[in-house]
Each structure stands twice: as C-alpha cells, then as structure tokens.
Amino acid sequence: MRKPPGKKKPLDRLFKKLSQECKNSSRFKDSRPVFSEGNPASPLMIVGEAPGRDETRLGRPFVGRAGTFFTKILEDALGAGRGNFYITNTVKVWPHLKTKRLKTRAPLKSEIDFFLPYLLEEIRIVRPKVILAVGRTAFGSVAPEKKFECGAWTKGVLGHDVVSVYHPAYILRKKKDLKKNTDELRSILKKVKKSLGRKS
Ligand code: URA
Predict the structure, then answer these.
(1) Mean pLDDT, the chain, as a whole number?
(2) Strands 86-89 and 37-38
(3) Ligand 1 binding pocket mutation candidate from 68, 105, 134 (most atoms within 8 A of CB)
(4) Alpha-carbon 45 to chain mean position
(5) Residue 200: is its pLDDT beyond 90?
(6) What's the mean pLDDT in 174-199?
(7) How far apart are CA 155 and CA 133, in angstroms?
(8) Can you list the pairs that 155-158 forms with residues at least 24 positions away whose Cβ atoms lie under 8 Å?
C-alpha cells in the first residue's frame, strides 16, 4: 500500500537518523534495525516489543512465529490486511543472548531508553487515534505512569488512547490458557475495530 506523502518523509528522515545513531553507537553498530511497516495514515498504531530472529532476517516487524500468530488474529478481527495499519516496535533491534544459537531475551531498560525518543517521535508523526500496546514493554513505554491491564483502555504519555494486550509470545508459551487468551485477544481487537469507527 502506498504511504501518504505527509507522514512518509518525516518517518523516513527519522529512521535514517536512527540508523545513523545505531551505527555510531558501540552497542548497536553491528545490529540490523527493523523499522515500521504499514500505513502511517491509519488511525491504529500497533506497538510491539522488539524484532526477533525472523524479523531481523527479513527486515520486517511481526513476521516471526509470534508475529504471524498475532497478525492473523488481528486481520481476522479487524477484517483488513495488516498493510492497512501502522506496525512498529518499541526497541528496533533484536535483543538476544550471544549463545551458540543466538537466543531471544527481554529488552533491557537501557535498550528501551535508547529507542524510546524514536517511538515517541513516530507517535507524534503518525498521530494515531488508538495505540495498541502489544505486551508490557510496549505498554510501559507509551503509558509509563499506568498499570498494565490486558484489555483496559487508558491515556498514553502523549494523550492518545492506549489499549494493551498480552504479548503473542506469552500467549503461545502459556499453552494451558492458549484458547482463553486467544479468545480474549480477538475480543479486545473487535472492540478496537468498533472504536476506530467512532467519531471521537
Ligand atoms: N514481532 C515483533 O516484531 N514484535 C513483537 O513484539 C512480537 C513479534
């Protein structure tokens, strides 16, 4: 889908600056940042935690096992392809342990802090109606003063409506509650769809 020109250029500039900042940092100079995808004119901004192995290989957010699981439910519940929405991550590089087969780990606070100004700038550029925070890391970044509660609506740090859901990797890991948590995710996303149709 073609991105409308109004937001595309500022986003391109922002990601160029971030690429450069990663290259200049001793910590991220060898990382391959993964930026956003989708439609910046969308009223819905989806904020995940961080890219994983597959996302890094393909250079796209939400395309690994958990991301594919999540986007399938998203597309079903919202009745539209993922390209219609703006999809990004809090941390733009893959947090991993340097074991023999690199192993995904939770992002460190210092990593979240490094990327946070970029996420906030993305929000200022995109100006979504609703931010869907996928998991606690995303929620903590967009609504730092608030307590994470799956499915609850709140106001984020920049005044946007924020709704949070469990991270798909957590849903997939917690096998005994898989159906319950998947049904809950679907039902929250249906409420998001309704809210997008409302005037304010
Ligand atoms: N894929 C991503 O890019 N981010 C997530 O938070 C989960 C899966």
Answers:
(1) 96
(2) antiparallel
(3) 134
(4) 8
(5) no
(6) 95
(7) 12
(8) 156/123, 156/131, 157/120, 158/120, 158/123, 158/124
Check if 51 has its Cβ closer than 6 Å to any atom of ligand 1.
Answer: yes
What is the C-alpha separation between 187 and 137, in angstroms, rounded? 22
Average pLDDT over residues 23-41: 96
Structural contact between residues 103 and 96, judged by C-beta atoms closer than 8 angstroms = yes
- Strand order, beta sheet including 153-155: 37-38, 86-89, 44-48, 130-134, 161-165, 153-155
The one-letter code for the residue type at 144 is P
pLDDT tens column, 47-76? 999 999 999 999 999 999 999 999 999 999
**DSSP annotation string for 1-68:** -PPPHHHHHHHHHHHHHHHHHHHHSTTTTT------EE-TT-SEEEEES---HHHHHHT-SS-SHHHH
The preferred substitution site among 37, 45, 49, 167 for testing ligand 1, maximizing ligand atoms within 8 Å of CB, is 49
Ligand 1 proximity of 128 Cβ (cutoff 6 Å): no
Report the distance separating Cα 79 and Cα 76, nearest Å. Answer: 5
Residue 62 CA, ligand 1 centroid: distance in Å: 5
How many whole angstroms separate alpha carbon 129 and alpha carbon 197? 10
User: Looking at the DSSP assignment, which residues form a beta bridge with residue 62?
Assistant: none
Place of tokens 């690199």: 102
Residue nearest to atom 8 of ligand 1 (CA): 67
